[in-house]
């Protein structure tokens, strides 16, 4: 098996090359031209398709999960259609993009209520299942660890100004850089209650910030230049809070989806 690591192949030409079952990680194809490419059964994760043009393609039995903006299919921008349908299916989803303090407080109340139901559901599962991922996704406990990381990053660090708000069980996203001062032990196996104890503290932190949130604060910008992540200047405080809402909303859906898959698997004789 050939391996290409830390190589600059800018301008290289690949013609009649078989890359079946190959693994591409942290590879830049920016500006690349692809013609006659077979993506059948390909698994693509954490990919960026900004300003990508696909012509003469066949998309059949394809699943796409991600952020859609200005996605034009056969002359139709499908992003607003998808958004409208998702909001129709789950009306609370539209409340996750608030513009005023009361809207943020309402959104957080909804999220805490929904997560209470999810946690009640997961307590009916064997402990081992809480450490099992589905289709190479995070396990339920890893998902909670990541949400703890997200609230620490965007509220603890960016809004409250704590440069190192981390707990040793916090978990960044898989493709994140390996920061020296941010924990990332993906293989740790804490109990559900251990992770929930951290989560309660983080939820309280967010709830307290929202409880005192004013219109003036919401319109302000925050800066964090200490080493670590996020490291941003003049970031709208509103976007920090919206990031947390989005993480909480989307990852609960992923968790519920995977719990259903685990339930179905357990029924197979």
From TrEMBL:
Coiled coil: none annotated. InterPro entries: 5peptide_repeat, DinB-like, DinB/YfiT-like. It comes from the Bacteria. It holds the Pfam family DinB_2. Residues 111-254 form the DinB-like domain. This is Pentapeptide repeat protein. It comes from Kribbella orskensis.
């Amino acid at each position: 098996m050939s391996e290409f690591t830390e190589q600059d192949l800018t301008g290289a030409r690949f013609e009649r090359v078989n890359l079946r079952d190959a693994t591409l990680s942290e590879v830049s194809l920016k500006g690349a031209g692809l013609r006659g490419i077979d993506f059948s059964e390909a698994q693509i994760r954490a990919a960026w398709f900004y300003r990508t043009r696909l012509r003469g393609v066949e998309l059949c039995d394809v699943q796409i999960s991600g952020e859609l903006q200005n996605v034009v299919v056969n002359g139709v921008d499908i992003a607003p259609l998808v958004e409208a349908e998702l909001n129709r299916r789950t009306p609370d989803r539209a409340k996750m993009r608030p513009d005023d303090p009361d809207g943020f407080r309402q959104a957080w109340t909804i999220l805490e209520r929904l997560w209470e139901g999810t946690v009640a559901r997961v307590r009916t599962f064997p402990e081992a299942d809480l450490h099992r991922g589905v289709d190479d996704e995070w396990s339920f406990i890893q998902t909670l660890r990541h949400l703890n990381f997200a609230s620490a990053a965007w509220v603890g660090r960016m809004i409250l100004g704590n440069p190192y708000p981390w707990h040793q069980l916090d978990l960044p996203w898989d493709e994140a850089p390996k920061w020296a001062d941010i924990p990332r032990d993906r293989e740790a196996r804490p109990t559900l209650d251990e992770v929930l104890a951290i989560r309660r503290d983080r939820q309280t932190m967010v709830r307290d910030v929202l409880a005192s949130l004013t219109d003036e604060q919401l319109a302000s910008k925050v800066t964090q230049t200490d080493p670590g992540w996020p490291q941003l200047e003049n970031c709208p405080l509103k976007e920090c809070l919206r990031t947390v809402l989005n993480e909480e909303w989307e990852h609960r859906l992923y968790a519920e989806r995977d719990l259903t898959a685990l339930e179905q698997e357990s029924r197979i004789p």
